[in-house]
Amino acid sequence: MRTALFSFLVLLGSCATHESHEATLKSVLADKFHIGTALNSWHIAGRDSMAHEVITRHFDAIVAENCMKSMYLQPREGEFRFREADAFVRFGEEHHMHVTGHCLIWHSQLPHWFLTDDEGNDVSPEVLRQRMKSHISTVVGRYKGRIKGWDVVNEAIMEDGSYRRSKFYEILGEEFIPLAFQYAHEADPDAELYYNDYNMYFPGKREAVCRLVGELKARGLRIDAVGMQGHVDMRHPSLEEFEASINAFTDAGVKVMITEFDMSALPSPWQSANLSDTLSYEQRMNPYTDGLPEAVDAEWNERMMQYFQLFLAHADDITRVTLWGVTDATSWKNDFPVRGRTDYPLLFDRHYQPKAVVQQLINTAR
Ligand code: 9MR
Q1: What's the topology of domain 24-365?
Q2: In Å, what is the CA distance from 290 to each residue of 30, 287, 294?
Q3: What pLDDT does residue 21 have?
Q4: Is pLDDT at 137 greater than 80 in this prediction?
Q5: 186-211 per-position pLDDT tens digit
Q6: 258 with 323: CB under 8 angstroms?
Q7: Which residues line ligand 1 (CB under 6 A)?
Q8: Is the entire prediction scored with pTM above 0.90?
Q9: pLDDT for res 282
Q10: d(CA 190, CA 257)
Q11: Among 54, 110, 263, 351, which one is least packed by beta carbons within 10 Å?
């Protein structure tokens, strides 16, 4: 009897060990949504083996943090450079991942030639349409059948719901968005197409994006999902504000993707009183250079978990949750909106270790 009991306990122990060893974010979330991360140049080139382990173990979706932006893909008109983007797509294929293309039309990281003629003046609407078409068809066409979906237009709408006064808008008006979706669909009819933006919790922006979805659909254009970037901090937005936008986009008839999630642990300069003394301002803005105090770490993990609980509650409508980076060490948040800070926005710390929320999420999802 004692032997039988002993064997049973050993078996139970080995099952538990086995299970906790095997359980990863992507395994427990497999029937909920894709769980993704953004790859930087080092990840793509295989120069960060510890990050490679985290990426392939926990994530089943990838997006390129920079290398598919127009300034890298087409630095001069007609001169395409695909080396890194090719390697990125191959990485996804080798690891059977859901690959997202980011991004086709964006006012930022856009090469100067795109909008100007030889004299440096704005191009005509006709020329801009041709350039957009050529860029989109070449890029989307190259990866036809290999990229699951594209962020077709990025960040075109402001918080108050007005259109961003980008050159695309100034030259072509609102029309540049449907055109981009049309060109992308023509180049790969099977690819999913997304509109992607940040600060989606502002009511004006939320409503304008819903209207945009409705207009694209009314014209018979394909749009599969709205990408809510989700660069949040410890205070903003509230879960309720974020959820209101998930609901609104779902009601507008598209899926939702959380496309660039991270949560800054640092004070926001937008919400702080101006300090006249530069040194105390810098210290106040960058308070955790030697590590996150336990209480702040606990608060961060708790709020991150609440966000994931929200995503899980909407798993029928959310098809992917992507973190904007792998570890805190290489997150863009260390340099934005203040340069040279030490931030803690991602699921894995500077030593590639999972934060508490990762195990909690695994337990909850399981
Ligand atoms: O993380 C990206 C960073 O490395 C680049 O320097 C920056 C340039 O604007 O773009 C960052 O990624 C952005 C993404 O492409 C679109 N949404 C906002 C992201 C953070 O700026």
Answers
A1: TIM Barrel (3.20.20)
A2: 36, 9, 12
A3: 57
A4: yes
A5: 999 999 999 999 999 999 999 999 99
A6: no
A7: 65-66, 108-109, 154, 229, 260, 332
A8: yes
A9: 82
A10: 18
A11: 351
